[in-house]
Amino acid sequence: MENAVSRKSETDYNYPKGALYALSESTAKLLGRSWFKVHALQSLQVAALAVTAVEYGLAAMILLALAYQGQIWYLFRRSGDRPQRLRFTRANLANLAIIGLLNVGGRGSATLALTSGMALASVNAIGFAIPILLFSAEAWRAGLRTAAISVPLLVATGLGVTIEVWDMKSSILGAVFAIVNGSFGLLYLVFSRRFVDMPEKASDQFQALVTLIGAFGITVWALLAGESLTAGWSWGLFFTLLFVAGMGTVLPRFIHTRARKMVPDGFYAIMVSLTPLMGLPVDWVMEGKVPTFWQILGMSLISTIALGVARLKEQMPTKTAAEER
Fold first, then answer.
1. Could you give the CA distance from residue 52 to residue 177 in angstroms, rounded to a whole number?
2. Which terminal residue of the chain, N or C, has fewer Cβ atoms less than 10 Å from its own Cβ?
3. DSSP per residue over 72-137, as a string?
């Protein structure tokens, strides 16, 4: 049946390729966020949520064109088999609404974290580290209670060191928004497995539609916050946002579903959590901020935990993807 959810056994996963895809996705997202902060939010006097809505809208248009290109060509040539498409069943519509709202909350809170004054590397560390907690649920179900409890505690310690919670100069508000962003990411991993397991074209179309919903939702958020949708615009800003849309949203989302098809959610979250260390040199190059000793220590701790969890994951009992859900 069209859009039917696939079922995989552990042997069907491709861990090396899935790890490469997951790291590529998070790296592209990292670079996109950095460019967005430096060249759109800091260099120009514009409303943060408003430009986020436009960037997301541009990304949605590109994703829709890529996902529905088969249908577009079919309208003109009217020959051959009808291209695969996402079916708008009640379950798919409900899933679109849920994940669309998670997109709004996640992308909006990420923007507010970036405008809070917190270092980009710290924002990324929190956003990319929280989804590793998904492993704790898997470890608990597998009977690894010590690992299930210790991993979140160690991650919280690493995050606390990274943002230097004892330093009153740290942006507490930025940390709160970054934690909210990471929490939305965790919920996304939980709710998105159904569309990830759809056939490739249908899952691409789903991603494009939830991005469009996200753009609409962030636009409403910006208006409710009293932001102007027209102030400060220029062709330079437009092309900046077009680049950010391609690098920070389109490319990561195109890779995302393919990475998730290759590995279980827990392993995917672990790979994404290895990204924070890469945020330090990006922060240095893009913003000229030299990493502090505590940032290096905290992010090293988070990445070490992720590597240890990856090794532990290999020892956990194997099960089917259906059981994981």
1. 15
2. N
3. HHHHHH--SSPPP-----HHHHHHHHHHHHHHHHHHHHHHHHHTTT--HHHHHHHHHHGGGGHHHH
pLDDT per residue as tens digits for the range 108-131: 998 998 888 777 777 777 777 777
- CB neighbour list of residue 14: distance below 8 Å, 6 or more residues apart: 262, 263
Enter the pTM of the model.
0.80
* CA distance linking residue 290 with residue 276, whole number of Å: 15
- Per residue in 27-47, pLDDT tens? 888 888 888 888 888 766 678
The pLDDT assigned to 140 comes to 79
Instruction: Pick the range with the lowest mean pLDDT from 66-75, 157-166, 211-220.
Output: 157-166
**pLDDT of the residue at 189:** 84
CA gap 179, 129 in Å, rounded? 10
* Tokens of residue 160, six digits: 């606390």
State the Rg of the chain over Cα. Answer: 20
- Structure tokens given for 165: 């919670």
Measure the CA–CA gap between 74 and 86, rounded to whole angstroms: 15
CA distance linking residue 291 with residue 293, whole number of Å: 7
- The residue type of 145 is R
